[in-house]
Predict the structure.
Amino acid sequence: MTETLPPVGIDLFDVERLLLTEAAEPPLPPQDATARDRVWDMAVKANPTLFDGPVVACGELERTGPGVLRLSWVRVTYRHYALRRVPGATALPSLFVNVVQPTDDGRVLAVRMSPSTAAPGRWQLPGGSVEPPQDGAVLDDAALACQAARELVEELGVAATAETLDLWVLTRGENGSVGLTYLAPALPEATLRAHFTAAAAAERSQGREPELDTFVLVGSADELAGLGGPHADYLEPIVRRFFRQR
């Protein structure tokens, strides 16, 4: 029996199998499109680093059996999410990947977004928005794992591969946003710090501000309360589950 999952609160779902299908973007009334563009232009003026690149939104999410989820996805650009600030308009939920990166002594890593990003100062897991496939490629389990591995390389300098990442849990939270969380192999703290420092230095050498400005290692979900600033809504539930299931 198919069960549509409502976008309410922050929920976590175990995933054994993920079925992906592409869907068309719903029609947008002209007045909403005009208001969306106005909001986006104002946001770019406030933060010129914002980029209206291609991105994947979530259409529908359904549970079709124990551990089996069907997810339809839609090609949009980042401008689409300006609809969240248009009264009466409906924005599709975002779709993103993130990674739980443990250390070999049993802690887990949380990262903080840099001031120049769209979420300055926010604590979260390494990760980012899902990008649509190109040149006839498909968006499937393997492609999503590759995107999660790429986020680890770009943000932490950790040379992970898709084969080493396990799809662990799916979250549905703020604005109905859907997150696919992968579990990475444990690494020593010294290795993580060395890679992170090198990755940040490489970004600055190219004249770019790193997306992350720091990271911490926590030994329990309760330690997250000591991190000042906003937290991604999924962070505490995922970290708590990690330590509960360890």
The helical segments are 30-46, 141-156, 189-205, 235-245. Confidence is low (pLDDT under 50) at residues 3-8.
